[in-house]
Structure formats: C-alpha cells, structure tokens
From TrEMBL:
Organism field: Solibaculum intestinale
Region annotation Disordered: where it falls in the sequence: 25-83
Signal peptide range in chain numbering: 1-19
Protein name from the UniProt record: DUF5050 domain-containing protein
Composition bias type Low complexity, residue spans: 33-45
SUPFAM superfamilies: Tricorn protease N-terminal domain
Lineage, uppermost ranks: Bacteria, Bacillati, Bacillota, Clostridia, Eubacteriales
Length: 312
C-alpha cells in the first residue's frame, strides 16, 4: 500500500521518505574482500557517496568485513582510517546514550539523499542534477537512467525502480526497469512523496504514519496483517520517523531528532531501541551482508556497515 504525504518534510528535519528495505539474497557485489573497489576517485558522478575513506586494499574492519569472514572487535570509526569531513550532531535527547558503534565504510563519492542497492548496482539520485544514476559495486559503468528530475526512489520487491518526480515536474509516480527502460506511468500524481510498506520476516506489513493521518493516534512505525487496511494497524514504535527498513528480526530506523537524524536498531516488537552509530544517517537499505545508508555527517554520501556488527 502506498500513501501520500501532503507536505514537504512532514515532521522531518530532512526530506521525509521511506526508503524500502530491499534485502535481496546473494552477495553484496564486492570483490570478495569485503571492501568495495568503488572507493576511489574514479567514481566521480556517482551521487551517493564518497570513496576516499576506504582504500581498496583495506582488508579488515571492525565489523566483520575482513577477507575470509574474520570478525574483529567493534571499535567504531571508519574503515581504512578515513575521517568525517562534516559535523557530527548529537541531539540532546541522545547524549550519553550507548551505541553499537560498528565500523563504517564510505562507498561512493557524490552527494545524495536516496540510495538503493542490488547485487549488481548501487542506485542514487544525484543532488547536482536530480537524475537517477547507477554504478557497479566496483565503481565502474556509471549510467544515467532518467531525464526526469526525481525527488524519491526505491527498488521494489519485483526488482524494479519506483520513483517520484519533483514538484516542479508534477510529482508523478513511475516504475521502470533497473536499466532505465520500460518506464510505466502509474497514473498517480503525488503532492510530495509516497511511502511504501515493508514486509517483515513475520509476514506482517510495517509502515510509518504521523499523528495527522487518518487512523493514526501517534506518530511512529505501525504493523498490520498483509492485505488489511492501514487504519487497522497497531503501533509498534512511537517516534518521529524519517525512514526505515527491516533487517532480519530488527527495524533499522532513522529517527528525526531535535537537531539531526540518528540511526537506531529496534526489535520488531518495538522494544530495545539502541543507537547504531554516532554518525547522522538516513535512508537505510540492506543488501547481502551490509546495511547501506546516507551519511549526513559526511556530505550526504553513501556508507555501509556490516549486518553482523549491527546485530551484536
């Protein structure tokens, strides 16, 4: 089920959009060492990340990305010794809160708000021109997929790209193949962004609503039976949600805080919310062994962290 959010950045300090969590099976598209070769300056134009923090020779990180699957203790920080060039903002409500603190690594060098990942490509909307691009996991083969100016996208459960054009372009909703062909107009005009449901491993459908929407008494993540109306759902986690995905038996959520966004790991029943990293992140998605996210603390570039480390 899709719903329309009627105001830009409803209850959000950044663009409020749910990036559905696409957990395709299979490898993550790495060279086998657990480190993306795309972490080089050759990935210019790939709008959702940076690469100078993860040299291709970096074979071991604190979150289990070492070659051969070795897992070293979590020490946090950035793989390869890179440094965050932006500001890390800790909201007052999160001060002193313990974090899981997995090692993270930068994977693409261009700014974006939205990322989607499958086994072959990383997809993003370039902040510079608002078009959708894709690039292989090794940083090669960058392609522009749309001439439309796009405000949101996701990789849907059928393996196709859904996207919404920006307000100036009419806010329309399209679906296309991941190579940019087969564009289909879904005959919906969106005032802003739409939100898609996420199916959990328990078969329940998870989604977020704000207290201004019909059927919602509080803002937060809800769940309902598949095929049921949204208004029949029950509140799982109360909070101001920017975006979230499902990772195995956890919700990975970007929560809107007073001054920033923060990534949290939450049990499927809404209990035991735990901050993942000090870095400000949005739009988490899962592919293979990794959780990818947009790191606001480093120019809205794309990072990843090992799932096993996040689950600890």
């Amino acid at each position: 089920m899709k719903k329309v959010l009627t105001l830009l950045c409803v209850l959000a300090m950044a663009t409020a959009v749910l990036t559905a969590c696409n957990t395709e099976s299979g490898g993550s598209g790495t060279d086998g060492s657990g480190v993306l070769n795309s972490a080089t300056s050759n990935s210019s134009g790939t709008g959702d990340g940076t690469g100078d923090g993860t040299a291709s020779g970096n074979s071991g990180t604190g979150d289990g990305t070492a070659s051969g699957g070795q897992d070293t203790p979590n020490s946090g920080g950035i793989a390869g010794g890179g440094e965050i060039s932006g500001e890390i903002i800790v909201a007052p409500e999160d001060e002193g809160q313990p974090t899981i603190n997995p090692t993270i690594e930068k994977v693409l060098p261009v700014s974006t708000l939205y990322v989607a990942v499958d086994n072959d490509y990383i997809y993003y909307i370039s902040d510079s021109d608002e078009h959708i691009y894709r690039v292989k996991h090794d940083g090669s083969g960058e392609e522009k997929l749309t001439d439309d100016k796009v405000s949101w996208m996701r990789l849907n459960e059928s393996g196709k790209l859904d996207y919404a054009t920006n307000i100036e372009s009419g806010g329309k909703y399209y679906t296309m193949n991941t190579d940019g062909t087969g564009k289909v107009d879904n005959n919906r005009q969106l005032i802003d962004y739409y939100v898609d449901d996420v199916t959990g491993p328990d078969g329940m459908v998870y989604y977020f609503m704000t207290e201004f929407e019909q059927g919602a008494t509080k803002s937060g993540i809800y769940k309902r039976n598949a095929g049921a109306e949204e208004s029949t759902g029950t509140l799982v986690y109360e909070g101001n949600i920017h975006s979230f995905c499902i990772m195995d038996n956890y919700i990975i959520a970007s929560l809107n805080r007073s001054q920033s966004q923060a990534l949290f790991r939450i049990n499927l029943d809404g209990s035991n919310a735990k901050k993942i990293t000090e870095y400000n992140g949005v739009s988490p998605v899962v592919n293979g062994d990794y959780v990818y996210f947009v790191n606001q603390s480093d120019g809205y570039t794309v990072y990843r962290m090992n799932k096993a480390a996040v689950e600890k």
